[in-house]
Amino acid sequence: MSRSTSTRSHSLSLEALEERKLMASSGIGAFAPSTATWSLRSTASAGPADVGTFQFGTTAVPVAGDWNGDGQDDIGTFNPATATWSLRYGTSAGAPDAGVFVFGKHGNLPVVGDWNGDGRDDIGVYDPVTAQWSLRYGASAGSANAGSFKFGAKHSIPVAGDWNGDGKDGIGTFDPGSATWTLRQTPNSGSANAGTFKFGSKKTYPIVGDWNGDNKDGIGVVNVNTATWTLRQTATAGSPDAGTFQFGPKYAIPVSGVWSAPTPPAQSGNTLATVTLKPLDLNLLGLEVQSSPITVTISAKSGNGEILGNLINSVGSIVDTSQATKALNNVLSTAVDLVNSVNLSLPGIGPGSFDTATASTTQVMELFVAPIHTDTLGVQVDTSPVRLTISAHAGSGLVLGNAMAALSNLFNPPLPSVFDIDTINQKLTDVLGELNAQLGAIPSANVPTKQPDSGDVLNFGVPQLDMNLLGLQLKTDPVTLDASAQSGDGEVLGNLWTTALNGLNVTPDKMAQMSNTVSGVLARVFGALNASSITLPASAVTGLSPAMQALLSPTLISPAGSTTPILDLIPSSSNTPPAAINLLGLSLASNNVNAQVSATTGDGQILGNLLYNTASLANPGGSAALISLMGQLASGSTAPVAPISGPFSSTPISSTPLTSLTFPALDLNLLGLEVQSGPMTITVSAESGDGVLLGNVLRGYTSLLNLNGVGNAVNNVLSHTADLVNSGTLMVSGVGSGAFDTGSAATTPLLDATIAPTHIDLLGADVDTSPIHFTMIAHSGNGLVLGNALTDMANLFNPPLPQQLDAGSVNTNLQQLLSNLNAQIPGIAPATLPTVPTGDLVGLSVPGLNLDLLGMGLKTDPIFIDAAAHTGNGMLLGNIYTTAFNTLGTAPADLHTVASNVNAILAKAVGVFNNSSITVPAGALASLPSAYQTLALPTLLNPTVGANASIFDMNIGSSGSTPTNTSLLGAGMATTNAHVGMTADTGDGLILGNMLYNVSNLLNAGSSNYLYLLPLLT
Questions:
Q1: pLDDT one-digit tens code per residue, 781-835
Q2: For residue 140, what are the CA distances in angstroms to 98, 252, 614, 711, 737?
């Protein structure tokens, strides 16, 4: 995935490219440097600039990339003289609202690509003199945290593209003197493993894009003297099979990108609700808060195996939700436009040291929560990515921006050779004191206080955002991330890190002081943001349609001071982290990730009145006039509004499940390796009452359908299936004799991983999941090969701990253990693991399960949690932690090797586990009621064995992405996808797959002969 811009200045001495392939074919464009005019076309073909012609930027190099992960490419420019990037969301004239910052050096060329597959484009620069690449995750100022390396031919032009369709961009160079392409599959040093070949002609300029929508990038060249494009579908030598044509003015710099969001695949179902919150962009005295667009969709998919989707769609023509969602989206769009059109103000700031500073931009924080997708037998819930960024703009009068810039740059390179926490704490205390003096009585934002803990590895907190924008309330929970080490028998990783940390001679009190002082500065700045106010000009209100203006009354529906939630997205439960993992004594956790938008009515609360009244248009105690008003809002009508009298009678909120499925706990044991999962429930429900617009509309489904009956039937089948699995015995072939045949009887916990409950509340349309809990335990003893091997690993470095860590000896022992395990089980491949980036502070990786249990497939993605420190100007925390670990006798690279060896041993053990088979006790099926025995027939509903169905699929994340990713001043923490999937396959002897497949297909078209089974299963 990438976007390619071939760039060229008037002297034809500068060029730079990117390219991006999303789930749609790439369009093309041309940028005229003399006038900064863009001409964009939606397809890679000759024709008019149907996307638009407009001016943006200055005489520079154009770039294009998806800066916010919405599936649509945005624009920007790069100035090679100053290495300044100016980025804009969308494809239109306007301000560089996606950021202005410096990354790279004089004479560099820009490159854009998705280096980590998170669906959002990253940036980089290439030095044509040395062929040195410097890449960065995200599109912001900071360090080259995605790598610095050499690749390709000197004096060439850089390109980026997804050459193999894996969702991540590789890199390459194009030599305009010989038209030679040198490509690599991944963004790092190494061989040209994607090919070295010639395509095009000399003195042309490269372009990259997905010309045919096959999710792989093709290539091309452009002759700027004639504006002639020559394109090829694949990144290989050959003919221009994607076309030769002219587009754009002569001497313009070519660019490519997906200029509109990809069209979603056609669904054979009914979209119950789709609501979008446009991006917010708020700026207060140099502190800028930006959010990505947020979309939530609830839909029902019909087809074979979609028993719940089929049931809901059977009445889809009777219950119409489209009018309510259109009205809501129109009002939300207007509200956000109003917020973004004005500036925030803040009284109570006095003069002080932060009145002036040199103009600069520093990224303070980035919080990312990847898309959530659940599919439960045809009932689907999808959210877009959620991204919140905070930037500091320094300059005259920008008090908050100056303060944050001062904090960020407090400990810049060159870094000292020895870690001195006392000096760091004194500098931090000085900044906090100056800020306290200048902000006076403005209260600090809420952020948890860190208590001293001798095991702390990495800890930081981001304060709470709690803003009232004329009744539109935006609130997030404080975000804290914590990595810690616990020592004790069997805690091999915790023991290693404890020994390493002991070498710093830093007390827990001093570590806690450092964390709390950084959090204190942030809390002061966020407190000012929370205390700010917004004023709308009168013209903003008078320009609204009559229907919108009718919603501005604070007492239209309920008394002034009424409140309703609009969106409550992804909070975990009280005191439960959304992601927590403990692996052999090393633990990582983050607290709640919670974003809330609510509305409160009152005099002058224009936005709150607007949203509250919209949310209440379908209240049970409302009137026909409100329904008529909803129709006008949905259509965008400018007609006068009929009189509406209120307030109306109040109705308490009640909730009715549309569907609720529970997946029982599993407990599987193979050769001493025990894997346990807790029960998991997913519920989609509709609320009815005041202020829950979508819930009131969706409630119509519950009155027309027996959703409870169908849900109970499926839950009963799932329960019996789990009982059969837990009563069975796992076996595997290919295990020989060796070092792990015997061991002393013992039980050792290896892993405890929790993903907390997920909750989405969209105006009464609710989705809730229970916690996902997963454990791995090693049991040692005679014949327990896997348990013995993992027990030996866990106890490899037990107390009493030495004064100095010798990671080399530990790694030698781990590698010997892995060698012994491979020798005893030579024929079974290890499970697949994500790669732990070299140099990261912490990298925990647990392989994914991929089991076939008599036709019931159970699959999880690998679990990976990473904590990293990046150095560079403005990277305060990254610089501090890097210096701390440079002071240790053991380099972070050695600890990285330890983690990699531990991960490899776990991968081998889980690989064996995944290759096991299960047998259930004789007579287990015969003991079930006859209805369940009927379901176990392989050809009950499908005459051919081998049919399959998806029973459940829950994914927090997208291909290659991280579900949570937080970066604060150079310190970052991320987790990989949280994915649980269950499938059913039919076949002789596959009794579990047969049962699940058949129950999921009972409401298929043509299956009426078996509907009698539903009440028997219930």
A1: 999 999 999 999 888 888 887 777 777 888 899 999 999 999 999 999 999 876 5
A2: 9, 26, 37, 47, 55
Which region among 76-80, 84-88, 808-812 has the lowest average model confidence (pLDDT)? 808-812
CB-based contacts of 579: which residues, under 8 Å, 6+ apart? 588, 589, 590, 754, 755, 756, 865, 963, 964, 975, 978
pLDDT at 106: 92
DSSP state of 24: B
Q: Residue 996 in contact with residue 949, Cβ under 8 Å?
A: yes
Q: Distance between CA atoms of 85 and 493, rounded to whole angstroms?
A: 42
* b (16+ CB within 10 A) / e for 942-958: beeeebbbbbbbbbbbb
Phi, psi of 233 (to 5 degrees): -65, -30
- Contact between residue 537 and residue 544 where contact means Cβ atoms under 8 Å apart: no
pLDDT tens digit string along 382-399? 887 777 778 888 899 999
What's the confidence (pLDDT) of residue 18? 32
User: Does residue 577 sit in helix, strand or coil?
Assistant: coil
Pair 586, 714: CB distance under 8 Å: no
The torsion angles phi and psi of 234, rounded to 5 degrees, stand at -125, 165
Residue 991's SS3 state is: helix
pLDDT-based confidence at residue 265 (cuts at 50, 70, 90): very low
d(CA 743, CA 918): 25
Integer angstrom CA distances of residue 105 from 124, 845, 872, 874, 906: 11, 36, 14, 16, 43
Residue 720 structure tokens: 């019996």
CA distances from 932 to 359, 574, 923, 983 (A): 72, 39, 13, 18
Token representation of residue 1012: 């009698």
**CA distance to 5, 113, 161, 220, 635, per residue, from 205 (Å):** 9, 18, 15, 8, 47
- At 971 the pLDDT is 62
**Distant-in-sequence, close-in-space partners of 930: CB < 8 Å, separation ≥ 6:** none
**Rounded distance, CA 219 to CA 211, Å?**
9
Cα-Cα-Cα-Cα dihedral sign, residues 791, 794, 799, 805: positive
Handedness of CA 415, 419, 421, 426 (dihedral sign): negative
Label residues 837-863 b or e (16+ Cβ within 10 Å = b): eebbbbbbbbbbbbbbbbbbbbbbbbb
Torsion of CA 617, 619, 621, 625, to 10 degrees: 20
Q: What is the rounded distance in angstroms from the CA atom of residue 584 to the CA atom of residue 662?
A: 30
